[in-house]
Amino acid sequence: MKRDDFLFEIRTEEIPAATLAGARRDLARGIGEALEQEGIAAESVESYGTPRRLVVWARGIPERQSDSESEVLGPPASAAFGGDGKPTRAAEGFARAQKVDVSELEVVDSARGRTVAVRRRVPGRDAIDVLAKAVPRVIGELTFPKTMRWGTGERSFVRPVRGLLALYGARVVPMEILGARSADWTMGHRVLSDGTLTVTGPADYFQKLRGAYVEPDSEARRSAILDSARRLAAQVGGRIDADADLAAVLADLVEWPGLVRGSFDPAFLDLPEEITTTAMRVHQKFLPVRGTSGLLPHFIAVMDNADDRHGFIGKGNEWVLNARLADARFFFQEDSREPLAARLPELERLSFQDRLGSYAAKTIRLEELAAAIATAVGRADVVGQARTAARLSKADLVTRMVREFTDLQGVMGGLYARAEGLPEPVWKAISDQYRPQGQGDDPPREDVGAVLSLADRFDTLAGIFRLGLVPTGSKDPYGLRRAAAGAVAIALSRRWRVDWSGLLERAISLYPADLPGLSPPVALAELEKFFAERLRNALERAGSSYDEISAVVNVGSWDFADAAERAAALTEARRRLDFRGLVLAFKRIRNILGAEDPGQPSARFYREDAERALAADFLQAKALLEELVPARRYSEALETIASISPSLDRFFVEVLVNCPDGDLKRNRQALLGAIRKEFTRIADFSEIVVEK
After folding, report:
1. 344 Cβ contact list (under 8 Å, min separation 6)
2. In whole angstroms, how far apart are CA 128 and each of 6, 63, 281, 375, 447?
3. Tens digits of per-residue pLDDT, 488-534?
4. Among 308, 311, 472, 528, which residue's CB has the most CB atoms within a 10 Å radius?
5. Angle at 156 between CA 152 and CA 161, to 5 degrees
6. Where are the alpha helices (DSSP H) in 142-201?
7. Would residue 593 be called left, alpha or beta, if left means φ above 0 and alpha means ψ between -120 and 50 degrees?
8. Are residues 452 and 393 in contact, defined by beta-carbon separation less than 8 angstroms?
């Protein structure tokens, strides 16, 4: 069947950079899934986007759906045909309603039994007709963090829609979306180009769009920005100070990436670097320029223009940045006049959460929790420092600097604490308390910081879960998934082997007993499931497969570092050991025993050589495991477990477990139960998937 490409573009007002990438992915996924469901799946679906347009290019779509067959069920066969096989009135009525002759009725097996049915051939629809219905539906199902209304207010989208382009091959796909009708033309850059661009297909579209100063590929814009930025930075003897996230944001701010270099007053270099770079990166979306000995008084800004011919853009950016840095210097100087401890009373007026009290109450809980965590991880020697850091950790929230530069919370507290002469582990802990903030972010630098970060996360999770505000779906207004993932990451990076359930229970107990919501035991159970999912994600990123992760997490998930070691050992052992027989045996044990614990076996009830051999091999393996497992020598332990696989195979071949003799049956079940109980200290082998 002939295939052709579908090109779709929806033009809008300025889409926020933070929303653009997700919108682009969601639109491509939605159209791809819709085409598949409609039976005209594309060979590939690509997405593009700029601040003023979302684009999807679906390649190789069949020109029409394949013909299909429909089946309409009627009355039961017993009611449709008499004993002599002749149709009854019920059959005749059904045939008449379906506009077919009675002779065309068939008898089929259905969920209702033997039933009369009519089969019809349904011709496939043309791709253009399918697209005309499917694409508007996909657009209507898109969701955004924030939407806008325009016109009379009945339309809602991420930004007001200004035009549509929809082509299947060279033909316009007729559709109307949010007041805009599809056409075969688009618009170039709003400043650098004039008029409309009539296009005949994807290749023509991309060529003409780039000729009209619009680069639809965000990756191409990002590369162009970084290349030009490196060149501009080198001209003043520096290099750009950029990260992947910021470069991606810059690419989604413009349709045609132009850059301008600016300068700021060198006197601002006396400010702590964290302040200067935050003002540039976060507030202004500028790329800092770094020299061999530190920051240079230069920055690079992106502009949606080919050049800054008159220098107005550069001068404007310089004026804004210098003003912001002047404010920052004033705030920093004013804040430095008062020690952090003097600000603690102000935390009484700062709410942590309406029903969970103030930040002053939170810091009291953090002190207790940090002390408990430091002791649990074997660092009782830093309990005093952990308490001090916890007490002062939120004081910077009421400083002028953090009120203006909210991204510097924690960082500013660390800077002020360092200036006051507090011990290095304390000020570093205050500075690092929010680390890691996401996947790939560094954990706290020292143990005291790791303790404080865990205490902060545990306190927040305990309180919000006690209120019953468990995240559902994509909604997570308190950032609890990020908080739990960060806690797992800290435990793994520090290799702290602790059963964290006791510390979460302690965190819950620090809240009032009459707090409305979930009871403490229920809240802890919900937290266990919540942390287990974050642990699963971490183990998957580390290279374990889903079944290996399930095998490990099912045995125990509260000791994150231990679970990670067991998963790594299982992944490695699975590559070199044959677990197939063992896995199949454990699946059989699960089917026989279920969740029941049949107790301990007795040697006096062994009757078959196979069960005596299995019992002997098991006792020998158990003695080794009692040495290997406490020492966390999991690779050797897994080898030991795998060694009894032949004995298990023989047992199941030669021994009838559920035999008529009750004593023998119970004893054989008890032997299998003892094996399961001992060996699942590392992993639940019944979760491992093996090839049939």
Report:
1. 360, 363, 391, 392, 395
2. 9, 8, 46, 68, 62
3. 999 999 999 999 999 999 999 999 988 999 999 999 999 999 999 99
4. 308
5. 85
6. none
7. alpha
8. yes
